[in-house]
Amino acid sequence: LLESNKEILLKLGQLAFQQLENGNAVFYEDDLRECGISVTEASRSGVCTEIFKQETAWRKKIFSFVHLSFQEYLAALHVLDSFTHNKFDALGSFLAFEPSESSEPSELSLHDLHEKAIDKALESKNGHLDLFLRFLLGLSLDSNQSLLQGLLKQTGSNSESIRKTVEYIKELDDEDHSPERCINLLHCLSELGDDSLEKEVQQYLSSGEEISPAHCSALAYMLLNSEKVLDELDVSKYNTSDRGAQETGPVVKHCRKAVLSGCSLTGESCEIVASALQSVSSPLRELDLSCNNLRDSGVEPLCAALKSPNCKLQTLDLSSNNLGDSGVEPLCAALKSPNCKLQTLDLSSNNLGDSGVEPLCAALKSPNCKLQTLDLSTNNLGDSGVEPLCAALSKLHTLRLGECNLTEGCCDALASVLRSHHSELRELELRDNHLQDSGVRVLSAGLEDPHCKLQRLGLSGCGVTQRGCASLASALRSNPSHLRELDLSYNHPGDSGGLEDPSCKPETLLVDHGGEIRTKPGLRKYACQLTLDPNTVNRRLSLSEGDRKMTQGRERQPYPDHPERFEHWPQVLCREGLSGRCYWEAEREGVE
């Protein structure tokens, strides 16, 4: 069969290779003629009609292989046939030499061909040579050479070239290539019968040792080939570098929840994640990209993915990504898309100001927006930012506005939300805002309204005293049916203003870590006085001013031996044990 169709198969291989090099999947009659293929011959040949298809568009005949894999396979066949017959001119720029290379094409070994092909494939940003490379390496194996002896020239054993190719792939620096290209290299190793990296990964995972980026690529390869949908991929569970964590990115297309927090994701990494979100079969429902400093450039491909009808993402954490007001705009546009299915969005710690609220309000008011939980904590929204936001909250179940520089000035707008019979709000988090008793009194007017459905209210660290607690107690007596949890920790509630009364006490009432200092604004409410521990201080450090001042010098201090003393590094611990929220200031002098 191979010998009888050898001529047409090799011509098709030439066509496949030329068009693959140019990135073409569709070609014309002139392209066929250039490779010596007659259109009439192609339409009558049984082989052609099985792997080749013809259509008419714009009054011109166009041709393509029935599947891209046919084109890539035949292209690999052409390269190997040209190489074994020393037809180096047919390979054109594929075997282009660097000026420093002294070997003539006729002196190239099979390993040299592999090396050129690997380098070419790695240069491709879209991976259009990935499958071609795997076919080329697989066809080079002695076992496959014998199967194709009616088609390809037999060259004897290739085992030494295969061994060198395996070593070359293993020695490539993962730092220079995208995760998807690295995973394709592992597919190549599999084609060549080498699974050593996979075995090493198993050993590293069981030992707890740090995993290199190369082994993370192998881990990703193993997970992708397992044919199982992972419940969760959490890169923080692997002892590896940021680059290693990035190598696992392609696995997101095979998991329900992906945690890629704090691993310095690049724009390219975001493109990989966005591609996974748009995959028809993607099971991804939860995605944590927090603490990656994505900014505008990183978030844009994700927003495009959220508009895809294939995207099924419901929970997205973008906290601590330095998005700013401009970075939120494309996200708001995505929320208005009828295809966007997001229900939970975390935008905390993103340098948002009140100017970022306008597009957010427009998104929340959109009939297409399905958002139920929104976290805007630790953004400088201020009262002026929250007031217009309150007009767009009718569909939200949970709103978090902790540490947003709010005062009593926004409480009337928030209370109006609580009173609205259209409001679905069940949880409101306002921790670490200086609302004080006056603001809580206004909020209480909303709580006592019969339309209020709020089940949890967070007022931790809001400067509330016994007076504010009395306002809350009065509101809960008037409307005791809904509120289940009230957080008043880090305030100065005194005797809780009657909140302990069974007639108004919620199921969960938090009043711990109280005290008069909690009425101070800002971080000073968490201030603590620390003294340094002489049993831990390094001998290059001297303590003074009641163990509150530390000075570093060259002379060693005559401190007695102690098991807790720092012997190598100039360090010292404080005497006081710290837990919960603490704040202290240190003044440094004489250090550049």
From TrEMBL:
An example Gene Ontology CC term for this record: cytoplasm
SMART domains with a match to the protein in the record: LRR_RI (SM00368), PRY (SM00589)
Chief localisation class: cytoplasm
A Pfam family: PRY
Domain SPRY-associated: 527-579
Record's keyword annotation contains Repeat: yes
PANTHER family cross-referenced by the UniProt entry: NACHT, LRR AND CARD DOMAINS-CONTAINING
Keywords: ATP-binding, Cytoplasm, Leucine-rich repeat, Nucleotide-binding, Repeat
Keyword Thylakoid: no
Molecular function GO labels: ATP binding
Residue segments, region Disordered: 544-564
Composition bias, Basic and acidic residues: 545-564
Protein name from the UniProt record: SPRY-associated domain-containing protein
InterPro entries linked to this entry: B30.2/SPRY_sf (IPR043136), ConA-like_dom_sf (IPR013320), Leu-rich_rpt (IPR001611), LRR_dom_sf (IPR032675), NLR (IPR051261), NLRP_HD2 (IPR041267), NOD1/2_WH (IPR041075), PRY (IPR006574)
Location in the cell: Cytoplasm
